[in-house]
TrEMBL record:
Compositionally biased residues, Acidic residues: 309-319
One BP term from GO: Golgi to plasma membrane protein transport
Annotated PANTHER family: PHAGOSOME ASSEMBLY FACTOR 1, UPF0183 PROTEIN
Superkingdom, natural source: Eukaryota
Pfam families, per database record: PHAF1
CC annotations in GO: trans-Golgi network
Protein name listed in UniProt: Uncharacterized protein
Ranges annotated as biased composition (Basic and acidic residues): 298-308
InterPro entries from the UniProt entry: PHAF1, PHAF1/BROMI
Region annotation Disordered: where it falls in the sequence: 275-328, 352-373
Organism, scientific name: Neocucurbitaria cava
Family label: Belongs to the PHAF1 family.
Length: 438
């Protein structure tokens, strides 16, 4: 086996590209490995970007990858050029240039190489006749194994349903394979009907491929269920659900359950403070230690005060209170930051606890819910998760592929439409249906 060959695992992967991986994971890896994957082409339906399949074509590698639209997970790996793909299965090359190709025609492995050396015996496949009536036209014979299938061009005049497929594919009427597909299923005939809807057997994250679990990173989030009143349930692939309670869940809880964030974005960058107006800050720094000796003279303290003096003092007190409040607001803003979880598909705002949103009008409410207790004052160093931003990773959008697609449902909305994560949805459509419940 030559160096640089990609490892082929039927029903599972080609190289690092594993069935079930997220579009975000695959595309991020392809962009990072420029030498291995010099170019890529992304195709999607502009009118239905989240309900139709998405394709990534690697022209220099002879590959085409197909992802489902709603979940954006890899469903099909196609080899369109065996010369560029350079594949190996159990230390045996799938195709060596010059072994099976014809001059001026496509090059690929012959049936006997696949049947005798590579994969072994299998059942007969499916023949698709040509659309043309030309006597020299060629049909396509699909030979399928568990998790992998090959397409062979066959002269239509030589095909007969009574003829043994081994004899047919071994004859001169059949050319070398023109393409190959890696999929999840017993055979191509059985798998193609549910290719984009069946539950993938592998996780979205490459770090979790192979059942590494906690060793490879935190468990992935399968679905987010928004229950209202600040309660968010994160259902995971293998671990029990993790609940985020807004204004209660701490950053330590998030790191323990979700892992360290991919990045942290601070809302108030102190490096920009030089550009801010310092007058209010200077006013808040007044203290007895900053007064002059004349300000502390006893004659000033024993002077008879007028109504104007009292009014001036009130204004000074209000100015000082306002300055102190502004200083506190700046301190709170300086502490606020986002935990960016690109591989989970959401961002979490870490800030001081806030008032929890009221329950849905359609939900059962207790009498105590009608008179919510105000949030108690918390020290500035007491930070919690107060907001979550979910990302759809819509192809063609400005922030495409920054996060993986996050799937969520609204459990507290009286509509089954938003309790089905497979239903494509947009923000405007959601608002039209739920605005009557707000």
């Amino acid at each position: 086996m030559e160096d640089g060959n990609m490892l082929l695992q039927p029903g599972r992967s080609v190289g690092f590209m594993t069935l079930g991986c997220s579009l975000h994971e695959v595309l991020t890896t392809v962009k990072a490995e420029v030498k291995a994957y010099p170019r890529f082409q992304l195709y999607h339906d502009d009118l239905h970007p989240i309900s139709t399949p998405i394709q990534i074509v690697l022209p220099d590698n002879g590959l085409r990858l197909q992802f489902d639209g709603p979940d954006q997970r890899l469903r099909l790996i196609e080899v369109l050029d065996f010369v560029k793909a350079k594949l190996a299965y159990k230390d045996i090359e799938v195709f060596k240039p010059g072994d099976g190709g014809t001059l001026g025609g496509p090059s690929g492995p012959r049936f006997r190489h696949i049947y005798d050396k590579l994969l072994g015996p299998t059942y007969g496949g499916e023949y698709v006749p040509p659309k043309s009536d030309d006597p020299n036209a060629r049909g396509t014979y699909n030979l399928s194994y568990p998790g992998i299938a090959f397409n062979f061009p066959v002269q239509h005049s030589a095909y007969s349903s009574k003829k043994d497929f081994i004899s047919l594919l071994s004859s001169s009427a059949t050319g070398p394979a023109t393409s190959m597909a890696v999929f999840s299923g017993e055979s191509w005939q059985k798998a193609r009907g549910t290719l984009f809807t069946a539950i993938p057997p592998n996780p979205r994250s490459l770090a979790l491929v192979g059942g590494k679990g906690r060793e490879g990173g935190p468990d992935e989030i399968d679905l987010v269920k928004v229950h209202g009143e600040g309660r968010i349930e994160l259902t995971r692939r293998t671990s029990p659900p993790f609940w985020i309670i807004l204004s209660e869940t701490t950053p330590q809880d998030l790191i323990m359950e979700l892992g360290a964030p991919d990045s942290i974005y601070r809302k108030n960058d102190h490096r920009l403070s030089i550009h801010k107006d310092r007058r209010t800050s200077d006013a808040s720094d007044l203290s007895p230690g900053g007064l002059t000796p004349d300000d502390l003279d006893s004659d000033h303290g024993s002077a008879i005060r007028s109504d104007n003096d009292d009014a001036a003092d009130d204004e000074d007190w209000e100015d000082s209170s306002s300055a102190a409040l502004e200083a506190q607001e700046r301190e709170v803003a300086a502490a606020e930051h986002f935990y960016n979880y690109y591989h989970h598909g959401f961002d979490i705002l870490i800030s001081q606890p806030t008032q929890i949103s009221p329950p849905s009008p359609t939900a059962e409410r207790k009498e105590s819910d009608l008179y919510p207790t105000p949030t108690a004052a918390q020290p500035l160093n007491h930070l919690t998760a107060t907001k979550i931003i979910f990302h759809g990773n819509v192809p063609g959008s400005y922030q495409f592929n920054r996060h993986r697609r996050s799937r969520w449902t609204l459990e507290h909305v009286p509509s089954t439409t938003y309790r089905d994560p497979s239903t494509p949805r947009c923000n405007s459509g959601i608002f039209r249906e739920v605005k009557g419940c707000i």
